[in-house]
Structures are given as structure tokens and as C-alpha cells.
Amino acid sequence: MNQLKTAILGLDEQGQLLLEAAAKLDYFQVQAVADRDAELAKKTAGKYGCLPYDDYRQLIMQNQFDCLLVAAGLYSCDEYVRTAMKKKCNIFKLSPPAKNFTQAGELVRLAEEENIKFAVANPSRFAQGFLALKKFLQENRIEQIFLLTAVYNGANEHTPLWQADPKLAGGGVLLYNCYEIIDQIVWNFGVPQQVYSLNTNQATDKQQRLYLTEDTAVVTMKFTDTFFGTLTAGRNLGPKQDFLKIYGKDKALTVTGNLFIISDHLGRTIEEFEYRDDRICCMNRVLENFALSILSPDKNRLCSSAEENLKDMAVIESAYLSARTGMPEEPPRILQMPSSSAVTAAI
Would you list the DSSP string of 78-113? Predict the structure, then answer.
């Protein structure tokens, strides 16, 4: 079987998860790993029998890979990812695809010009609970949806220091912690017409808050005149939660990656399904889809292309713009801004 010559960029906790998932799949031949921490790179390379690098530029310039799996923040490797693209290297990027919509659009255009795959990791698309939701909606088993609510509580999980810097990160809890749940909303219900957002953080004074990304946010979304949604997010809230609730005429749905509950309008459970997927299992599935879209593109459509993820980025961009202007903003308008056909096709 053909194998993809593969390198991993960034070896933090998420990078290690990505590497572990790739190593379990026969589609990938992991040839190199890279991290700014030389000892970590050396130790990880020894474990997986590949070459270590502590210089991202050397990794890209000295090798020719079929694909690059990117866990590092783009603030530290944007130019090297672009160089890899120009060397016809397919890219798999942990979410988010970029720090803002403009940067994401530029990368999508470059991938289109070089005729390569640029995928964004959305493991939740392969989680059984969310797959059950997708099927339920496609079968029209819930009538007249009028409200959805989404909740993310981080329970003080470790956050890299650079994600607190707006210049490096581009955003906070919405961009880095809520990306997958926003993707589920957009994937299932489309791009909202309007977004209104209030963002803040727990800095001690107003001046300090200006120099930190948000750790708390409340987002309201208007899909139609009769269908609205809200997202409440907090990095420092507990217990840890990440779920969607959908309310229809005669029933409600509660969904997580491992849970799908159907209730009546009084909140009484009609059916409940539990699944045992873990994070690496879902990552395996999304990586397998990425690999097959390269090896057998005629038979395997890329499930989570960066082009498609521009819709998610437009919603997030609208939320940040709304927080600054104090007014509702329109994601469809943001999607119309770039002139690239690749971006326009995402609408």
C-alpha cells in the first residue's frame, strides 16, 4: 500500500495526540517530527523511529514530504507552512486553521493554486454522538427547530501562554476552545445571518483586558426570523462541559461526542444513546479521511477542507467584530469579502 511521507510540526499535548493517531494508521509513514524544544523533539523521534528537528525551516527545506501535520500555532510557523505548500506538500492543520479569516483565506487560495489538500481537524465530525445528530436532522425527525444552545466550560484547563496574546493568537476561547462546537453548528444548520457577541476576560482592570484574549464569551446567532442560537463559553468555568441542545416543536435533543438524548417538550427522556469514542479514535477517523482523499481522491471526498472551514472562521470573525463594535455583524458579508473563487465557493 502506498504510504504518505509525513512530518509533524509541533509536539505539545495536541501534537502528541496527532502523532499517536497518525502512527496507528498504515497510510502514514512518519519520517520526522519538529518542535522548538530540542529535547522533546529528540525524545519523541526516538519513540517513533524518525528524525528530530528543532528548526521548522530546516525540516521543510531539507525534505520533501507528501503531507505535513501541523499542531504548532501558526504564529510560529506560518511562513514554513506556506513554503511546504509551495513544495506541493498537503497540509493537515489542527483547528483553528489560522488566527483570523484573512489569513485562512490566503492559505486556502495558496492550496488551490498549488493543487494540494488543506484540511482542518474537526474530530467531532466523526464522533458518534454528533454523527447521530447529523442523521437525525437529515431524516427530518425533529420539526420546527426554533432554538439551539451551546455550552463550553473549560474547567481551568491548561492554556499556552501565547494564546493570551491577541497579536500571536488572534483570539481566545471562541477561536481555540469553541472552534469544533461552532463547526458543528455551522455544519448542521448553516451560516447564521447575524452574530452578536460580548467578550471579556478576568484581568483586574479595563486597560489590562485590552492586551489579553477573551476567556469568557456569550454569542447570539440569528439563522432566520424564527430560529436563534446562543453559545456560552468560559475557560475558567466548571465542571468541564461541551454540548449542544436543540429545541423543536415537540422534542429536544442534547448532544455531545459520546451522548445523544431525545427528550419531549417537558424534558422527559424518550431515548438515550451512549457511545465510547475517545479523542484519539475520532482523530484516527479524520486522519484516515485526509489520507484517503490524497491517495484515492476519486473515491474519497475530503470531509473537512479548509475552504469549507472558512464558514466557521467567518462566524468567529463576526463575533470578534461584534464585540468591538457593539453591533450585530453578518458572517455572509465577511464570506463575500475575498475575491478568490475558492473562498466564494465556500458560501
Answer: HHHHHHHHHTT-EEEEESPSSSSHHHHHHHHHHHHH
